[in-house]
Amino acid sequence: EGSWKIPSKKGNVMNKRIRHDIDDRPPVAIGHVDLQVSDVGSATDYFLNLGMRHVHQEDDFAVLELRGGTHLVLERPEEPLAAGREVPFDLMVDDINVTRQRCVELGMNPSEMETGRIHRSFFLAGPDGYKIRVTSSHASSRPV
Description:
- The structure is a single chain.
- By secondary structure, the protein is mostly beta strands.
- The chain is about 15% helix and about 35% strand.
- Strand 8 and strand 9 (about 120-125) form a beta hairpin.
- The protein starts with a strand and ends in an 8-residue tail after the last strand.
């Protein structure tokens, strides 16, 4: 259990204990992650196939939900992320082997598995040719 520093009315920093007796999850999460894509419909289908949950969709905008309530926001900009560039986030899954095999079965052509210092991972080519890293989970045994 940690403490949380908040500014007081006078601008001083005070320590306040985070209450973990009510909810054991961390009190903060990433709310939204933006990804610029050329075709929102195709990108939506792609990420739904990976297991995300549909929340909202328009022609040039979609919101998909991930575990923990984080939302992936897909938007059509003037210039989408260039092919070959890695997106500024990774996707973490509980069973990296099962997920990679599912991607093979879906025809997503995942890369070979890589083993790093903490994670095992593989890459997928996104709908516009950008690279998405999929990693093994290392979440703690506590609720997240």
